[in-house]
Amino acid sequence: MSTVDTPSGFKPFGEFSRPLVPFQPIASNYATALAVGDAVTLSSGNVQQSGATDTIDGIIIALYDSNGLACSQGYSPASTAGYATLCTDHNQLWVIQSDGVGSDLAATDVGKTYKTTVGTIDSTTGISAFELDASETNATAYQLELIGKVDSPSSPQNTWGGTVDCIVRIKLHSEV
Q1: Other residues' Cβ atoms within 10 Å of the Cβ of residue 145
Q2: Cβ atoms 133, 166 nearer than 8 A
């Protein structure tokens, strides 16, 4: 049985690594809300969500308002100036859930690459809606390399299948 479909973006797997890039600006005219766990690119020096085929510059690990204080609602609302701290280490492993659409993942898929799928942030919880797009795979050309699935006492139902919690490495990554 696979896990329930509950997108939650990217979460560090294992020990959290460096480098961290603090206080990257979020433009006040950027019309998309941002959450911890979102994959982002830098556009004209400002943080923006990465699209499904974009090179990923980093993963948001903290968000701040325009005064440099932690965002009280847990996310950065659309069209609101602020700052994000990013993890930019291309060796960092991440946990992200598969969307379960189009194809079930199996152990034979380890090593393949996948795109992300971007959903809308849950404004009640502030949780990212990024997932691995299971229907978009390629031997080498997409954003995420599938390393395996999470095996732990805290996720005993995490079997290969539709909405599996995956361990990935960012394959299409730039150095910030």
Answers
A1: 18
A2: no
List the one residue out of 37, 48, 50 whose CA is nearest residue 121: 37
172-to-16, 53, 158 alpha-carbon distances in Å? 20, 9, 26
Q: pTM score > 0.85 for this model?
A: yes
In this structure, are residues 22 and 87 in contact, taking their beta carbons and an 8 Å threshold?
A: no
- Do 145 and 82 sit in the same domain of this protein? no
Residue 110: exposure state from Cβ atoms within 10 A (0-12, 13-18, ≥19): middle
pLDDT digits (tens, 9 = 90+) for 139-150: 667 899 999 998
C-alpha span between 116 and 50 (Å, rounded): 9
Domain span at 120 = 92-170
∠ CA 145-150-156, nearest 5°, is 155
